[in-house]
Structure formats: structure tokens, C-alpha cells
């Protein structure tokens, strides 16, 4: 099945595909990411999340006495999207020889894991490690649900939220060294300028320095 023929996985669905160890495999993955952004920006769950993030961002900017105008509104919303994503995302490298990408809706639902399930998952790890160190397990906090994934996942998430908030154009950015591109982040046009939005980094508008950088537009 070609990339164009493969539908975007729905709730509780997983698509497994064998990828060639060549640029064709990379092209397929990039094509899926673009499709996930295009479809995800129309998902009611994504739209609601993007709207709420923008509402809080604008409200916070006004409390900070920042000017909220037609020209600055998109930039303020984009700052808020970066902050929200950075808070709720944890970078996890892919397993060897496996590329994992997720739909944006799947990512947001990772934050909805019931407390009882999260407790049952993490408690045995916490208790055993604390016991081995002679510590009181109750003194150690349990991690809250977070979205996890590679830079492909993080860039897909931020671009989808930006598009759902009506901020465009958008594009994937690829960075690397010595002609090899291996790191992805989002690039969004706001307030008359392209903005780097790398949610793995804590500061908005910053990114790692690379020897070579390329961009791929996402038609929306």
C-alpha cells in the first residue's frame, strides 16, 4: 500500500509498515507526518486544545501588560503553544531500526491516562527502586502523564496545533551535519517572520546549531 492509499489511523488503531532502508523510507515517513498534520488540524480535539492554549496565552499576555494587536496575536499564541507542548512533552528516542510516529489526536489522549492506571504502572518501579536504596517510597513522586516521542513526533504536534489555531504557513525543518539530516523541529510563519518552534528546548525561538538545514512546506 502506498503512502497516499494508507489512511490516517483512527482512535485505538495502529498502522505497521515495513520501510526500505533508503531515502524511500524517509520520504514515506515525511509524507505520513504531513498527512497527520493536514488531517489533525481539522480534528475537534486538536482544535479545542489549540483554542484553549491561545485563550490562555492572550489572557496571560494582557496580564503582563503586553500589547495584543492583530500583528502580535499570532506570535503570542505560538509562544503559548510552545510553552504548553514543552511542558507536556518528553523526548524519547525511537527503538533501534524502528520509527514510531503518532497522530496528533493520539498524542493528546496520552495526557488523559486515568490516575489509577498511571499509579498502577509506576508504583512497582518506584517502590522496588526505593526499597533497594533503603528509602521511603511515599517520599518519591510519581510522574504525571506526558506525551512521549522522537523529534518527528514533537514537530508534528506543534505544527498541527499551530495550523489548528489558524497560524500559517507552516513547514518541517530538518537539521544535521556533514550532509546528514537527522533532527526535526517546527517552523511557523508568524508576525511577518519564520519562527523556529522546537518544543524539546525550553526557550521559544531557539534551536540547536546545525551545519545544514532544509525545510519542507506543509500544504494546508
Q: What integer is the average pLDDT?
A: 90
- Radius of gyration over alpha carbons? 19 Å
Strand content: 15-25%
Largest sheet: 4 strands, antiparallel
| Beta strands, count | 6
Q: What would you say this structure looks like, in words?
A:
- The protein is α+β, with helices and mostly antiparallel strands.
- The chain has one domain (23-113, 145-217): C8orf32 fold (Roll), CATH 3.10.620.
- It has six helices and six strands.
- A hairpin with a 2-residue loop joins strand 4 and strand 5.
- The longest helix has 20 residues, at 44-63.
- The protein is globular.
- The two termini are 24 Å apart.
Per-chain topology:
Layout: H1 23-40, H2 44-63, H3 70-88, E1 89-91, H4 104-109, H5 115-132, E2 147-149, H6 151-164, E3 170-177, E4 180-190, E5 193-197, E6 212-217
Helix pairs in contact: 1-6, 2-3, 2-6, 3-6
Amino acid at each position: 500500500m502506498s503512502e497516499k492509499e494508507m489512511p490516517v489511523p483512527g482512535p485505538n488503531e495502529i498502522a505497521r509498515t515495513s520501510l526500505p532502508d533508503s531515502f524511500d523510507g524517509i520520504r514515506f515517513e515525511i509524507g505520513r507526518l504531513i498527512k497527520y498534520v493536514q488531517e489533525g488540524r481539522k480534528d475537534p480535539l486538536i482544535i479545542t486544545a489549540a483554542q484553549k492554549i491561545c485563550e490562555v496565552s492572550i489572557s496571560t499576555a494582557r496580564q503582563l501588560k503586553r500589547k495584543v494587536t492583530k500583528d502580535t496575536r499570532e506570535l503570542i499564541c505560538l509562544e503559548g503553544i510552545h510553552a504548553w507542548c514543552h511542558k507536556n512533552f518528553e523526548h524519547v528516542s525511537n527503538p533501534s531500526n524502528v520509527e514510531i510516529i503518532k497522530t496528533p489526536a493520539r498524542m493528546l489522549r496520552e495526557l488523559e491516562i486515568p490516575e489509577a492506571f498511571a499509579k498502577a504502572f509506576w508504583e512497582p518501579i518506584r517502590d522496588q527502586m526505593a526499597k533497594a536504596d533503603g528509602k521511603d517510597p511515599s517520599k518519591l513522586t510519581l510522574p504525571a502523564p506526558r506525551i512521549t516521542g522522537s523529534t518527528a513526533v514533537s514537530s508534528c504536534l506543534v505544527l498541527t496545533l499551530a495550523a489548528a489555531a489558524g497560524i500559517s504557513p507552516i513547514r518541517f525543518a530538518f537539521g544535521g551535519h556533514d550532509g546528514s539530516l537527522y533532527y526535526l523541529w517546527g517552523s511557523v510563519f508568524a508576525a511577518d517572520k519564520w519562527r523556529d518552534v522546537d518544543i524539546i528546548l525550553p526557550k521559544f525561538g531557539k534551536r540547536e546549531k546545525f551545519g545544514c538545514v532544509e525545510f519542507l512546506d506543509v500544504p494546508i
